[in-house]
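Task: fold both queries, return tokens.
Query 1:
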Amino acid sequence: MDSSRRNVIVSAPVLRPASDNCIHTKNVFSLLDLTEEEESFHRIKKHMDTCPVCESAFRKFEQKNLETKVFIPKPQIDSETKMVFESEVHELFKTFDFNEKTRLRKKIKSNFKKIDMAGLDFVKNLGSKNMLKTYALGAVLFVILRQFFN
């Protein structure tokens, strides 16, 4: 058993002094993915403010991250594709109205047109042949009932 322990001890990684090594260094990189509202962000940030090893590792990582972004090419569209895209988008905007005020204005206008049409239909019905017959019948009934009850 002593020989197996020696093998384990010999094969174990050699740790650097505490000033060069921190077990939290691997967690510091998650700061890039966290939002400031999360509790983990504040905990890691607080540790980073007190630990120079983690702060140094994070600054190096940030620097490398910024350096690699320089080499990422910006997407460019050839002129033919750009013209086709612009014409299709223009046609889409003609077809679909995404402006909230314009949509509301059109909706109000259509509702007023419906009300206006209902009013016109009402007036037309008041002056139709059937209504004129109804008015005449009502007047005759009124005269007969008035004479009968007087």
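Query 1 returned. Query 2:
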Amino acid sequence: MTNIFQHPRSIYIPLDAYVCCKHGFNSTYQNDLNGIINPDEFQESMNRINQPMLSCNKKLKIICIILCLMVLLGICFIISANVAAKKDSSFYNTLLTIGIVSIDGGVFLHLIACCVIICQRERKLRQAITKETIIYSSRSPITCGWRLENCGDENNADQNDYSHVVIDIVRPTTAVNSIYHFDQDNSLPPPPSYSDLFPRLSS
């Protein structure tokens, strides 16, 4: 008896996203997973996969708040510079410079922080997917593989652009080993005996 693995059946879990903000993958349990992954295990797996996205969203919100504060601070300095120019022009250049640096510095730091946070999110997300594959691929007899896929654009080569988590389910089928029997032809004479070949030696 040997096991032959069929072509995997794929289950697609969509990504919940709004504009450029990825909130996480849909954690609704699908009936196709019955008997393969129980609901509690599925929820735990989705929590581990969505954790990098939730953590990233919190950090991005903090970065956005800091950016807004720096921009408002810069605007306040620019307004103060215009007011000071009417009374004392010596403070105009200083306040104006601080205001411009505050705005430009806030935008620049915001872009760098966003790039770093998003890169960390992608790396941790793929690590989580790999761990789930290791967990479920070692199960017997039904194994599962987890991967990321962009189902919207098949020609898109960007590995960081994805829209679904795909669970590939592989069910083995049993095949019977074939034993070949060769028919013997009884009409042929039996082979000669040792005494027939060497009569003198046998005597």
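Both queries returned. Flag for query 2: The chain has a mean pLDDT of 78.
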